[in-house]
Amino acid sequence: MAAQGISRFIGAAVIVCGIVVGAPLAGAQQTASWDATWVGGWDTGNGTQIVIAGNQVVGFYWHDEYVSILESHSANDGSTLTFSWRGGQAILNRLGEKSARVLVRQAGQPDIAVDLTPD
């Protein structure tokens, strides 16, 4: 009977150690870089090109023109990138390694979501 109690204790201890040791390793995974030219929306009339370098938006083509970026911020975990220009802002969310969706918001216009892939 005592041997059964000890083996349960050892089994529980192994599980706890695995969780404690594994947790920091899960957080240590590197986030995927946004660096690429992301494109999409040509089929829906919302052709979009977002050029990203150093996880910062450096170019944005929207409604037949390149707009000047005022600011750009990447979330610490790399899941989201936000940027703004005069008259609008956008939130870029990573859906997978090679897919993302941008939500474009402009004053007086309905929000537009566009699915993107790296070019």
Layout of secondary structure:
Elements: H1 2-27, E1 36-40, E2 48-53, E3 56-62, E4 65-67, E5 69-74, E6 80-85, E7 88-96, E8 99-106, E9 112-118
Q: Could you tell me the radius of gyration in angstroms?
A: 22 Å
**Number of extended strands:** 9
N- and C-termini, Cα separation: 65 Å
What is the average of the pLDDT values?
83
Features:
119 residues; alpha+beta; 2 domains; nine-stranded antiparallel beta sheet; 22% helix; globular
Account of the protein in words:
The protein has one helix at 2-27, and strands at 36-40, 48-53, 56-62, 65-67, 69-74, 80-85, 88-96, 99-106, 112-118. By secondary structure, it is an alpha+beta fold. Strands 4-3-2-1-9-8-7-6-5 form a nine-stranded antiparallel β-sheet, with no helix packed on it. β1 (36-40) and β2 (48-53) form a beta hairpin. The radius of gyration is 22 Å and the shape is globular. It starts with a helix and ends with a strand. The relative contact order is 0.16.
